[in-house]
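User: what does the whole thing look like in 3D?
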Amino acid sequence: MALNMQRLGRMLPSLPVSRAFSTAAGPAATQATSPTPPSPPPPPPPSDTAEVFVDGQPITVPKSFTVIQACDAAGVDIPRFCYHQRLSIAGNCRMCLVEVEKSPKPVASCAMPVMPGQKIKTDTPLVKKAREGVMEFLLINHPLDCPICDQGGECDLQDQAMIFGSDKSRFVETKRAVDDKNLGPLVKTVMNRCIHCTRCVRFSSEVAGTEDLGVTGRGRDSEIGTYVEKLMQSELSGNVIDLCPVGALTSKPYAFTARSWELKSTESVDVSDALGSNIKVDARGSEVMRITPRLNEEVNEEWLSDKARFQYDGLKRQRLNTPMVKGPNGLQPATWGAAFEAIRGAMAGAKGDEIKAIAGKLTDAETLVATKDLLNRLGSGNMKHEDDVAAEPVCADVRSTYLANTTVMGFEQADAILLVGTNPRHESPVFNSRLRKAFLDGAEIASIGPNIDLTYKYQHLGSEPAALSQLLASEHPFLEKLKSASAPAIVIGPGVLRREDRDAVMRAVHELVDKAGVVRPGWNGFNVIHDSASRVAALDLGFVPSASARSAPPPKVVYLLGADDWMDREVPEDAFVIYQGHHGDKGATRANVVLPGAAYTEKSGLYVNFEGRVQQTRAAVPVLGDAREDWKIVRALSEVLGARLPYDTHSAVRARLAEVAPHFALINNLQQPVWLNGEVLQKDVPFQSPVNNFYMTDSVSRASAVMAKCILAKQEAKN
Amino acid sequence: MRRAVQKLALVAESATACSSLHQQALAPLCTSATSALAQGASQSPLCQSNYRGRVFVPASTRGFAANSHDLFNQHKDTPDNNADNVFEWTEANLKRAQDIIDRYPPNYKASAVIPLLDLAQQQNYGFLSLPAMNSVAKMLEMTPIRVYEVATFYSMFNRSKVGKYHIQLCGTTPCRLQGAQHLQDTLEKTLGIHIGETTKDGMFTLSEMECMGACVNAPMLAVADYSGGVEGYSYNYYEDLTPADTVKIIEALRKGEKPKINSQYRNKAEPRGVIQDGKWTPSEGTLTLTTPPRGPIVTNPDL
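Assistant: Here's the predicted 3D structure for the full assembly of 1022 residues, as structure tokens:
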């Protein structure tokens, strides 16, 4: 079996060193490139670099590098188990031994800093023997159960044993046996297989910030576990599955369902929150078997939230697979033609703003623009996003007022961060890990909003907008902190945009931005984050009520684009409701006509994350039954309604998107924020996060049994 | 679970026979011995039994945690030890704990974890219950798992209930050579328990420890006295022991007396002697190092 290069590529994602400052040009170092490579850091001044020789090949690397990083930069593969570039160095697996000239013994390359002129040898007999010896020790207590192990086929231990190991063991004593741990409904443990690399322990304490896991006992009897049986508290717990180099921690929902070589991977984007984590959808036939993260340094690094990773079983439940029309006996399956006829009949009695469209959390940009065009052609400007719950719609005129202008990666530079009305841990757990990274780099964080455990220490300034006024009014220590910070940032949560006094809060925030100089040349620290994937695209495309629609009478026809969380006043009792979506949730129950659409794993659609990055999902599996891609449904309906939309192909819709909002071809379009005028602060209404149940936020996660188990497990853990 | 099964197998062993588990395991080695036994001959050295006929089980297959009486490196709820138990520092100990914490810089509070765990163990009758460890974690602003890691690592921290006197017999090579096995047999007979167990009256827990550094006076055992709380706590070595001395020490402890600590036969290097065949044997003259050392003699050229 050849070393699985794809997997190794995941293990060694984009290295911070690039060929840019390597003196020897060679073709080797390209195997570990990321899908969207970050811009290479400027070459450090010569005094900070050292020239080393890897197998005789000279390479110049920063002095802060370790030997293993220098070897990676030179394109030489070093086997490793415990070393991971995003975690602290443990140096306990000993697999990365290399020979360094003038060193009497082989050295652990992950823990050895480079020295100028160092001569590193990775293919000598000594190194070969050392690796073989280490591998033999690692396999002493490792069970030979690869045929029944879920990691089989994508296992670092298996691959490296094949390449670097011996063909037999000299160990004849009994292997140790370790109790399996119950870490909750997501992570399955087979602790006999553990080789104690401690990656999971380091992940939970360093990245996730919930110190659940540890090494108990010592020597032969050491175990990884929580000591007292408990749930892993993190919303990022699924990442330990990817980190585990063996089959000790595997996915519980995925257990025994597929083998890695049977799966077809499709690179896509997650829509469970507004961060737009990059994912790989692994499918077998027409079934999504699992979802794993894909490396993107600028968005999710290589992490993924538990909801994004495990909600896929919801894609197999409660699905709408055929058009339906409501008759005397409730919703009955119908043909597309019959459904469209029913819609035409209902539309005939409505004119102008009496037709209303509500976009759901998961609607792609193509569908949004097609629906907007269709409604406009029918003379209606009455459209909104379901998250827009305040009486006055969010202003979509200036893009920088509703984006995270600092960018997700930019937060790593921030040294003072103020959170306003947000719970990033639930609204976007992976983004929260980025905030934690900034915290660990010394950023001071304060929050006005819910007082909860965010996995890092922060100063709680208050739960109500009054705290914002106090911060503005006096010489508040944190205001001084923001003023003196070199890169201050303010994060406004999606809960703020839902408040009735949103404009007043925003005005106060803008005042603060001005006072503290949060927006300065070269730095924009003003950020709004959202909690649903379609939110930013809807604002970008102006999917907001027109001026006339704001005073329009109650609508007669309501077109729900997968919208399930609308308020009752939005959809009048006597309205004719069209529900176009993929799950039989609240919206479909109310509908007069149901049009089955495609879920995000079944279509290619554009989504804009909360920093304004346009990303696309790709179809990993075919659509279900009679369902169709959403924009095509709207296009077909326009024909029936006599308002034919002028695009027939996907690329034509994309062209239309770029016409409406050019950044659909441009990424990270930053603009300066402007002042907003508004109302009076509701000083005693506490800030609340709209995500009060992290595991169930949209129709997919609501249909997921695994997510339901997570909620149960959390409740049990609380009791 | 396998450990529990092994432990149960150990407990279930009768005084006269090997457990079936070990009989099976050792069957190939013992074939000649059993036939020899049938003829009334002595046993094969490969299947050495102690005087109660019990096969010695090597520590490597016995499956304990870091010390002899904690079976698991994970917490298992028992009536004595669960999250609902209460651990409250006494006022005096709280002051002691504060004194310990004050020895370290405030940002390195966690350095006090070992002395604090020791203090908590002394107050909590010899073992660290879950609430005791949690209270140390809270005091030092550590996450509980970091404290559990320390407590499970060190053999001197007990995580399950122990007797008032924790008898820790050295089981490392020098003591074994000088007859530690006989001490173990005597202790097990006198107390009626095996290694890792506690007497029914809750007086004694018997453990096996690795080398405690008193090899010169082998064989030895250490007794941790938890009967008097932190104030009365003592941790004493008893060295140069014969089986008879061991029984005397146990009887004295049982009566609440203070047996002679350290070597039972000398106060310093003199008189020369050694425990041989279960009794103190004075030695005359030089027994070792009687000839000039063989070369090569290496000296540090820098000196």
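In plain terms: Residues 67-161 of chain B form a domain with the Arc Repressor Mutant, subunit A fold (CATH 1.10.10.1590). Chain B has a mean pLDDT of 79.
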